[in-house]
Design brief:
With about 200 residues, the protein is α+β, with helices and mostly antiparallel strands. It folds into 2 domains: about 1-30; about 30-185, Immunoglobulin-like (Sandwich), CATH 2.60.40. Helices cover about 25% and strands about 40% of the residues. Strand 4 and strand 5 form a beta hairpin. The longest helix is centred in the N-terminal third of the chain and has 23 residues, at about 5-25.
Length: about 200
């Protein structure tokens, strides 16, 4: 049974449109995926569960041109504390988001790192891109929860989802264009106190 001519032409246009969309997606160069979390540590510090980490590649090559043009770069860390459960799904105990912004002033040729969410710290101003990147990418002694909120024998771990994007826009299209990247890391399992 043959299709009516009007339906056949509509079907052909749909196939051609789908094929073009697939070619565009296949031809787009993905981001280099240099972003990664390093030195992720969870420990007990002053009776608080704290986290240390460093984000390597916080300013990928695809973001540098936009940054030099005055477009701000945002780095967002979503830090989750999880409790391991041997016989059921692991339980997420809390989520903490830390967001920082790096802005280049083209007039004064200075980089300014400011905290937008999740922490209170004064802005850091420098003329050195490496120094700005260090301040943007290091998290030291981030307090998650008091140790008393957890049972001493609970097995816990931390998951970190980190995003780096021009103007804070992290979508599929910006990742394909190379102006945003994201990564995921997980710490080792541990207990607060040594169990026998």
């Amino acid at each position: 049974m043959a299709c009516p001519p009007m339906l056949a032409s509509s079907y052909a246009r749909h196939l051609v449109g789908s094929a073009l969309a697939l070619l565009l997606l296949a031809g787009a160069a993905p981001a280099s995926a240099d972003l990664r979390v390093s030195d992720l540590q969870v420990f007990l510090n002053d009776h608080e569960v704290t986290v240390n980490m460093v984000l390597l590649g916080a300013i990928p090559e695809g973001l540098r041109e936009g940054l030099q043009g005055g477009i701000p770069t945002h780095v967002r860390y979503t830090i989750e504390l999880w409790q391991f459960n041997r016989y059921w799904r692991d339980a997420r105990l809390l989520t903490r988001t830390v967001e920082r912004q790096l802005l280049y002033n083209v007039v004064t040729k200075e980089f300014k790192v400011t905290s937008l969410r999740g922490e209170t710290r004064p802005p850091h101003v420098t003329k050195d891109l490496r120094d700005a990147q260090r301040v943007l990418s290091e998290i030291r002694a981030l307090k998650l929860t008091p140790a008393t909120a957890l049972h001493p024998s609970d097995i816990i771990y931390v998951r970190v989802h980190a995003e780096s994007a021009l103007n804070g826009e992290n979508t599929v299209l910006t990742r394909m264009a190379g102006t945003s990247e994201e990564t995921l890391a997980q710490s080792d399992y541990r207990t607060l106190y040594r169990t026998e």
